[in-house]
Design a protein that fits this description.
Layout (H helix, E strand, L loop, with lengths): L36 E4 L5 E6 L5 E8 L13 H8 L3 E2 L3 E2 L1 H9 L5 E4 L4 E8 L3 H13 L7 H20 L6 H9 L14 H6 L2 H11 L5 E7 L3 H12 L23 E7 L6 E8 L5 H14 L5 H9 L3 E10 L4 E9 L5 H18 L3 H8 L2 H7 L4 H15 L5 H9 L3 H11 L6 E7 L11 E2 L50 E4 L5 E6 L5 E9 L12 H9 L8 H10 L3 E6 L3 E9 L3 H13 L5 H18 L3 H14 L13 H6 L2 H11 L5 E7 L3 H7 L1 H6 L20 E6 L5 E9 L8 H13 L5 H9 L3 E8 L7 E9 L3 H18 L2 H13 L8 H14 L5 H10 L3 H11 L6 E6 L1 H4 L12 E2 L10
Parallel strand pairs: 2-8, 9-13, 9-14, 16-20, 21-25, 21-26
Antiparallel strand pairs: 1-2, 3-7, 3-8, 4-5, 6-7, 10-12, 10-13, 11-12, 15-16, 17-19, 17-20, 18-19, 22-24, 22-25, 23-24
Helix pairs in contact: 1-4, 2-29, 3-8, 9-16, 10-11, 17-23, 26-29, 26-32, 27-28, 28-32
């Protein structure tokens, strides 16, 4: 979680951005203001327009001012349920209409989210589909609720339950926020319950309950529509009036919620033995203030200062002095009517949380004595300009923030005031809010500890009331998703069943790529982009984990991590402060194939940021104490992965795909045994042997020319000497000749994690992109895919399922991934098997048409953001592709036939030549998996003891 929530991160357009350059440091910084137009329809709908013609795309967002705070006790989870329901069907788009239309028009995927205070629906589409999207969004408010029937409601209840199991029940520390909410807020406070609600409440919800909730809250006078991107405001306004004007205003008054802080009359300390935790975690939560309250800005500064970076008081005591943890997190969570300040410390294995609490008290005492200096205050504020401009690269981000400001303040341009409030925070304000909301104040403490380790909890902690769901075979409500809803259609002044036509087709503009190189071998690839005054650059060094020996697994990860910890002339604290004072970010990390330095900076600070990056890369500090802390943190992470079903599945699947003798099968963190053996001399040796420009490239995107980039690298060319680096090649096995079912036991798991697949293709293979095209309808196309339509929409078994090809320069895997309700583990595998068996012969002309339409039209979005441009440069530099490789891909799509799809499916997604891995509860699910028909399941670990409920 981000330590300081600068809520001013709202996108806008600036004429001055076009002329930004590093030399113009004396120019006055323009006021960060908003370029928008706003209208209000007669029915109360507020519409905001934001014009950004940098890319031929439009973001469409509908935000409704209803979240879990508008619910009542006993009827919780309704707002989140509607986030799901509104995607399923409407009178004029039909069943699955929005998702089907999204696939046709090349949209980013219809999405949504629910918070305590609002629900939003959002998507980015090519600009020629704007009228279609306005038509579709109008159907949500005016022509939707009649389509919600008993079977529809029953199925979506199962999907929401699966989301809760995936995000809460089957995750380490997943119940922590539930416990805090129940104890920080009174029973009748709307923040007492979680956004996802109670499963019991959802199960008991009637169709009438749901419709009543919709009719009160999902009305024009409680909604904001934002259109952001390449739009003609006059034409868009006409379309908005056409499709929204006749939707009636809500009949019930919607009063503003009264601000009401949480209340903790006395200290509360609770503990819980977490099924999936391997290390103890302490959380302290204090009631604070609502968003936009003047004190919320100072609280954001306070929490960042106390917990972020080497000089943070919490880190000085808990990490450096007491060595109880590797990380502390403190943040201010401000919502519409109340806020809370939370401090989270996940300790090392076996640490008593009383010791953590003592360390926290020492850190607070230090702050009380010293406060925050002006230098530290300014350092914390310094990143705001960079963060602000970073938000300009996505029209979707712009739309969300415009909608949020309008929903909560009535003013889409509140960004200017928001920034001023942040800049106005003083050192005295920071100390004042500490004294007012933290020092000596009652709080809620939660101790989440591993099972059978209650002795690690705070002294006097009482057992938290957490209800664990019991999942029983055959206990779920039955429904038939194929039953068509019957209803009387809502009248309209024109025939809304006719989908609007496309606008003018946008042309595909491929960014211009430049290339260069240095004498030391460093290759340079760049794209000049002056939409915002930022520069992003990556220096990627080939090798990564591939260069490790099997007895020193994890050395690449530790080497990369330690390069972040100071330089020869700067301590960790001094380096962090130097980066933050520029408003920049620089981080170095390792993965299977690379070590990457990634940086973002204002264009005017590029040279200084590059100098720091070069210092980190070429003059490492190799601090012994930092190395010891990193080792300890890595081992703690590895222990935690042992009980995380998703991490277990990922690690076990890689070993099954690649084989134990292929280093790609190993965890990039290493193993507990290998990390314990690694010394700092091993890191120094790895660094000396493998960090070389001869196997490196620099990717640059932003407001800087090729000439300036090349000129800036003179010192890097002179000081970074090349050496020969030979990267081992590991051969990926062929796909298995027969299917095998594997099972890894996680007792009492609420979901089973499925990983089905086989070795397949490298990104450079001629079939790679064609196979990805074939996969779109199978599992790569989100809600357009058969896997999603059958297992989520048809049966309610899962919250999400997908498939993909993961090749790089080496052959990767084809993989189907999902988390399914535990009691339908077998049924889910059977459904996947059936889809795979039938896919080659049932792929239709309509499927081919949908695939081609999406993949061609979605190219309008391909290079919208700087990150997308960096990904493009990565593909070009890694695989030797031409800068306009997207046009070659268009040819592949346009020439694709059903016969080719059949051949590709038979070759690469054959269920009888796959690995079928299940990670779940062996006691209830292992024996059943034999019914899949692929032989006796192989248990990969010893059956563990059943976890107590």
């Amino acid at each position: 979680m981000k330590k300081i929530l600068f809520t001013f991160l709202l996108a806008a357009s600036f004429m001055s951005c076009k002329n930004s350059s590093e030399e113009k440091t004396d120019a006055k910084t323009p006021e960060l203001s908003i370029n928008y137009e706003k209208i209000t329809l007669d029915n109360g709908l507020e519409v905001v327009f934001h014009v950004d013609k940098s890319d031929p795309v439009v973001a469409v967002e509908l935000m409704v001012h209803v979240g879990s705070a508008r619910e009542i006790e006993g009827r919780t989870g309704f707002a989140h349920l509607f986030e799901h329901l509104l995607f399923l069907e409407s009178e004029n788009l039909g069943k699955g209409g929005l998702d089907k239309m999204t696939a046709r028009i090349g949209g980013s995927g219809a999405n949504g989210s629910t918070s305590r205070d609002r629900t939003n629906y959002l998507q980015t589409v090519p600009k020629d589909a704007l009228e279609k999207m306005i038509w579709a969004e109008a159907d949500k408010l005016g022509w939707f609720i009649n389509t919600v029937t008993e079977p529809v409601l029953a199925k979506e209840k199962q999907v929401v339950k699966n989301e809760k199991r995936q995000s809460v029940d089957n995750r380490p520390y997943g119940h922590n926020q539930y416990v805090i909410g129940k104890n920080l807020y009174p029973k009748d406070h709307p923040y007492n319950w979680q956004v996802i609600g109670s499963l019991e409440d959802l199960q008991n919800a009637t169709l009438e309950d749901v419709k009543t909730f919709f009719k009160k809250w999902y009305v024009p006078n409680n909604s904001t529509l934002v259109l952001s991107g390449d739009i003609d405001v006059a034409q868009a306004t006409k379309w908005v009036h056409k499709y929204f004007d006749e939707i009636p205003r809500g009949t019930e008054e919607i009063p503003a919620l009264v601000k009401r802080p949480g209340k903790v009359d006395k200290m509360k300390s609770l503990y819980y033995e977490d099924n999936f935790a391997r290390v103890p975690q302490l959380t302290l939560a204090w009631p604070s203030v609502a968003q936009y309250d003047k004190d919320s800005y100072a609280l954001e500064v306070l929490t960042q200062y106390l917990s972020d970076g080497k000089s943070a008081p919490l880190n000085q005591f808990l990490i450096d002095d007491l060595k109880l943890t590797s990380n502390t997190i403190m943040y201010n969570y401000a919502s519409e009517i109340a806020g809370e300040t939370q401090l989270v410390v996940r300790a090392f294995e076996g640490v008593h949380l009383e010791d953590v609490k003592t360390g926290i008290e020492k850190a607070f005492a230090k702050f009380e004595a010293e406060g925050i200096s002006e230098k530290d205050l300014n350092r914390i504020k310094a990143g705001q300009e960079t963060n602000f401009y970073s938000s300009l690269s996505s029209v979707l981000g712009k739309g969300t923030n415009l909608a949020s400001y309008n929903t909560y303040t009535g003013n889409p341009g509140f960004v200017t005031e928001d920034i001023k409030n942040t800049l106005a925070v003083t050192s005295a304000d920071v100390m004042r809010v500490y004294n007012q909301y933290i020092k000596g104040k009652n709080y809620v403490a939660t101790s989440f500890v591993p099972r059978n380790a209650a002795n690690l909890a705070l002294k006097g902690a009482v057992l938290a009331d957490v209800v664990e769901e019991q999942i029983v075979i055959g206990a779920e409500e039955k429904f038939d998703p194929k039953i068509a809803a019957t209803y009387t259609k809502t009248p309209s002044s024109f025939d809304r069943s006719i989908e609007p036509p496309y606008g003018e087709t946008p042309s595909l503009a491929v960014p211009e790529v430049y290339e260069s190189s240095l004498e030391n071998g460093l290759k340079i690839f760049g794209i000049e982009s002056n939409e915002v005054p930022l520069v992003r650059f990556n220096i990627t060094i080939d090798g990564g984990q591939l260069l490790e020996s099997f007895d020193k697994l994890g050395v690449a990860n530790l080497t990369a991590s330690l390069l972040n910890k100071g330089t020869k002339t700067k301590t960790v604290k001094e380096l962090e402060e130097a980066i933050q004072e520029l408003g920049a970010s620089i981080t170095i990390y390792a993965d299977t194939e690379n070590i990457t330095l990634s940086a973002t900076t204002l264009a005017k600070n590029y040279t200084k940021t590059l100098a720091l990056a070069q210092e980190m890369l070429l003059e490492p500090r190799f601090d012994e104490s930092e190395f010891d802390l990193l080792k300890k943190a890595t081992i703690a992470n590895l222990h935690q992965q042992e009980a995380d079903p998703n991490a277990v599945a990922r690690n076990a699947y890689n070993e099954l795909i690649y084989g134990k003798d292929n280093i790609r099968s190993k965890n990039t963190l290493g193993s507990v045994t290998s990390v314990e053996k690694i010394t700092i001399d091993d890191l120094k040796l790895f660094y000396r042997n493998y960090i070389s420009p001869s196997v490196a490239k620099m990717l640059v995107v932003g407001d800087i020319s090729k000439e300036k980039v090349v000129a800036s690298l003179t010192d890097l060319n002179k000081n970074w000497a090349a050496k020969k680096v030979t990267i081992p090649e590991y051969k990926t096995p062929e796909a298995p000749t027969k299917p095998t079912v594997y099972f890894y036991d996680i007792p009492n798991a609420k979901q089973s994690v499925l990983q089905f697949g086989a070795p397949a293709l490298a990104a450079t293979d001629k079939d790679f992109y064609a196979a990805s095209v074939m996969n779109y309808i199978l599992g790569g196309g989100g809600f357009a895919s058969r896997l999603t339509q059958e297992l989520r929409e048809g049966k309610g078994y899962t919250y999400g399922i997908w498939s993909d090809f993961s090749g790089t320069k080496a052959k990767g895997a084809f993989t189907i991934s999902s988390g399914v309700r535990s009691n339908v583990t077998l049924e889910s595998a059977q459904a996947v098997k059936k889809i795979l068996e039938e896919y080659p012969t049932t792929f239709s002309d309509k499927d081919l048409e949908t695939t081609k339409s999406f993949l061609i039209k979605s190219n309008a979005r391909a290079f919208e953001t700087d990150r997308a441009k960096l990904n493009m440069l990565s593909n070009i530099s890694d695989y030797g592709w031409k800068p306009d490789y997207v046009k070659d891909r268009e040819n592949t799509v346009n020439n694709m036939t059903k016969e080719q799809i059949t051949a590709l499916a038979n070759k690469y997604v054959n269920p009888t030549k796959m690995i079928w891995l299940v990670v779940g509860d062996a006691e209830t699910q292992l024996a059943r998996m034999k019914e899949l028909g692929y032989g006796e399941p192989i248990l990969l670990n010893k059956t563990q003891k059943k976890i107590k409920n």
